[in-house]
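Customer escalation, tier 2.

The customer says the design service returned an amino acid string that "doesn't look like it belongs to this structure." They asked us to rerun it and document both sides in this ticket. The original C-alpha cells are below, unchanged.
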C-alpha cells in the first residue's frame, strides 16, 4: 500500500517533467540564440545571435531566422518564403510545430 501511495505521489511530478510548454517571444530567443539543436542521425542546426542559421543534413544549408509574434520563423534562400512555427520546450528538448500540427523535435547540444 505504501509503495502505491509513493507511486501516486511521484507520478504527477513525472508527468509535468515530460510535458512540452509553449514558449513566448523572449523565451524563444533565449532558448535558441547561440545554441545548436541535434535532430539525430547526424542532422543539426545552429542559431547565431546575428540571426543566421546553419542546417546540416548530409550537407550544409544557410538561412536566416527571426521570432515573430511568439513564433520561430526561418527563410532558406533562394526562397524568400518565411515559414513560421510554434516553439515548445521540455527540458533540453525543443519542438517546432507547424500550422498543420506536424512536429519536429531536437535536443539542445551540450
Amino acid at each position: 500500500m505504501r509503495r502505491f501511495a509513493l507511486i501516486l505521489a511521484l507520478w504527477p511530478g513525472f508527468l509535468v517533467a515530460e510535458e512540452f510548454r509553449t514558449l513566448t517571444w523572449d523565451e524563444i530567443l533565449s532558448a535558441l540564440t547561440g545554441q545548436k539543436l541535434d535532430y539525430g542521425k547526424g542532422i543539426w542546426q545552429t542559431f547565431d545571435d546575428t540571426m543566421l542559421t546553419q542546417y546540416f543534413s548530409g550537407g550544409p544549408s544557410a538561412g536566416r531566422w527571426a521570432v515573430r509574434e511568439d513564433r520561430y520563423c526561418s527563410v532558406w534562400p533562394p526562397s524568400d518564403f518565411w515559414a513560421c512555427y510554434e516553439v515548445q520546450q521540455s527540458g533540453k528538448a525543443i519542438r517546432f510545430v507547424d500550422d498543420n500540427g506536424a512536429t519536429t523535435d531536437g535536443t539542445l547540444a551540450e
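Tier 2 assessment: The sequence is consistent with the input. The two ends are 41 Å apart (CA to CA). Residues 1-16 have pLDDT under 50 and may be disordered. Sent an explanation to the customer and offered a walkthrough call.
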